[in-house]
Amino acid sequence: MITASLFLRDLRHYLLTNDRWIRLCIIFCELIHMAPLDRDAALDLITEPMKSIGIEYHDKADREVILEYTACHPNLLQFYGKYLIEKIGKHRRVED
């Protein structure tokens, strides 16, 4: 079973080891200061878009881990959601 904590560990590794991504952000990204979302808004941001494509969190603890690791920052929540979708896509099997 793939859990949020496994994805978060992989995401942390990616961010810490991908210097190219960081350099591109520094060069091409405009710095925008964003405040953390309140807990309910952050929870909606990680659950509602997933529900719309048929993905749900089976363990409430996974959602809490995501909120804790991202500190409810919208850009980190969005990045996590994109990362999660990509990982799920790689593990999904097409059945005959």
Explain this structure to me?
The protein has 96 residues and is mostly helical. It has one domain (4-90). The protein has five helices and no strands. Helix 1 packs across helix 5 (74-91) and helix 3 runs parallel beside helix 5 (74-91). It is globular and about 40 Å long. The chain starts with a helix and ends in a 5-residue tail after the last helix.
Outline the low-pLDDT stretches. Answer: none
What structural category characterises the helix and strand content? mainly alpha
Q: What oligomeric arrangement do these chains adopt?
A: single chain
- Number of strand segments: 0
Q: What general outline do the C-alpha atoms trace? A: globular
> How would you state the average pLDDT, rounded?
77
Q: What helical percentage do the residues reach?
A: 55-70%
Ends apart, CA distance between termini: 22 Å
* Helix-strand sequence: HHHHH
Amount of beta strand: under 5%
Q: Determine Rg (CA atoms, Å).
A: 14 Å
Largest sheet: none
Per DSSP, the total helix count is 5
Into how many domains do the coordinates divide? 1
